[in-house]
Every structure is written in C-alpha cells, then in structure tokens.
Amino acid sequence: MTAPTNIDPKDIQAHLAQFKGDKYRDGWASLWDKGDNLPWDKGFPNLHWRTPWSSALVPGCGRGVDVLLLASFGFDAYGLEYSATAIEACKKEQAENHSWYRVRDQSIGQGNVTFIQGDFFDDAWLQKIGVALNGFDIIYDYTFFCALDPSMRPKWALRHTQLLSPSPAEAYMEHLSHPGEDIPYNDQGLIKQDPLRAPSKAGLERVAYWQPERTHETGQGENGKIEDRVSIWRRRN
Ligand SMILES: C[S@@+](CC[C@H](N)C(=O)[O-])C[C@H]1O[C@@H](n2cnc3c(N)ncnc32)[C@H](O)[C@@H]1O
C-alpha cells in the first residue's frame, strides 16, 4: 500500500489555479505526472462501504483503490481517469495489492475491474468499454466533485442523470436535485439554497444518508470526530 503523504492541499490549489476553465483537467494530469506526492491519495479505500448492486462507476478514480474494493464486493467496477499516469497507477495497484481486495462474499464473488482513460464529460470512454448511457447502477464519487472547477458542477450533476441507470444511485450534494442548473454560491463558496425548494423534474432523489462509522483522517475533525457523510441517490423515473 502507498503511504499517505503530507503535502499541504493549499499547494495543490495554487498549482491548479494556473489552469483556467477547461484546462483544469491538465492541471490534475500534471499533478499525477509529477509523481507520488498526492495529498488526496490515501493509498487505500475509504472503509464506509457495505451494500452491493451490480455495476459501479468511480469517476476520477485516482489510483483505483475504490474500484478494486467495489469489485471485491461483487460489482463490475469501472474506474475512469483523465490522467494516463493515474491509469498506470491503477494497474500497478491491481497487480501488486490484489490480495488486499479479497472477495467479501463468496456467494456473490468477484466483479470485473475495468480501468479506462477518458473525460467524465464526454462519451468516448463509454464507447471504448461498451457501456451505454444510463448503464451504471451506482456512481461512487470520492473527492472527484471537489476536483472540478466549481463552474463545472451543474454539468457534473447533469452527467449523473446521463450515466445512472433507473435504479439505486450514489452521489452527493444539492446539485443532484437540480441537475444542469446554476446553483448560487455566496462569496465563501457555500451554496445559497432554500432547503424547502422542490427538486427539478430531472432531479435525482436522495434515498439514504448516514454518518460512516469510520473514515480517512481527512474526513475527521478534532478528536477524531467523523465529519464525512455518505448519501445514496436514485433517479425518480
Ligand atoms: C482529488 S483526485 C481524487 C482521486 C481518487 N478518487 C481518490 O480519492 O484518491 C481527483 C481525480 O480526478 C481526476 N479528474 C479530474 N478531472 C477529470 C475528468 N474530467 N475526467 C476524469 N477524471 C478527472 C484527476 O486526474 C484526479 O485523479
């Protein structure tokens, strides 16, 4: 397993600030190309997982640890990365640490693992892996949303409605209730949202929300208090 690193995330923000608009992807790719000092990359999956469906997408999967874990639960798991270097890291993780991702339930067995290079927002990678639009039962987003330039968040939510099958789904944040819409933010970067506002017609619906019993240190506050939350969302049609 790769050891956690200590780089100040502020250095990452300064680096990414040099890549404006759509160029932000190249900012992330260049971080991967620099080497192993990647503060988001814990080297092992967050352990708040429990329930299997059948096919799972991990966009911006990084080193692929969550993809391998999902496959060990029996999902056919797809890891999508824009960075070709990250895809290499995924394959290395799979080759070197496969014994850590043992099958969790023999009656379900091991799911297939597919790592694919591509941009979450276009369809070329879907064609390469032979999966149709609305072909994923769940999308597991772990620090991908926050990797995007905030201007892309409406498109991020809209993309979920294009990728999720009409079955249980996982994702987070207010954007999913109003996909494709501009959501107002205040100058501290917090959403200005009326919590009583009805979801839009195409909006996803949250069906579960919980505080995990354990999580990475970055998801904990003072005295180990867990600040991470997990939500499950589904289409409403
Ligand atoms: C903060 S990292 C999180 C990686 C991984 N989920 C983890 O927790 O270790 C965000 C990742 O998203 C990838 N990424 C950014 N924009 C992308 C895009 N449009 N399509 C696919 N991957 C993207 C970056 O290369 C980076 O590895």
UniProtKB/TrEMBL annotation:
Transcription regulation in keyword set: no
SUPFAM superfamilies: S-adenosyl-L-methionine-dependent methyltransferases
BP GO annotations: methylation
Coiled-coil blocks: none
Protein's UniProt keywords contain Methyltransferase: yes
GO MF annotations in UniProt: S-adenosylmethionine-dependent methyltransferase activity
PROSITE patterns (UniProt xref): SAM_MT_TPMT (PS51585)
Record key words, sorted: Methyltransferase, Phosphoprotein, S-adenosyl-L-methionine, Transferase
Name assigned to this protein: Thiol methyltransferase
Organism the protein comes from: Penicillium hetheringtonii
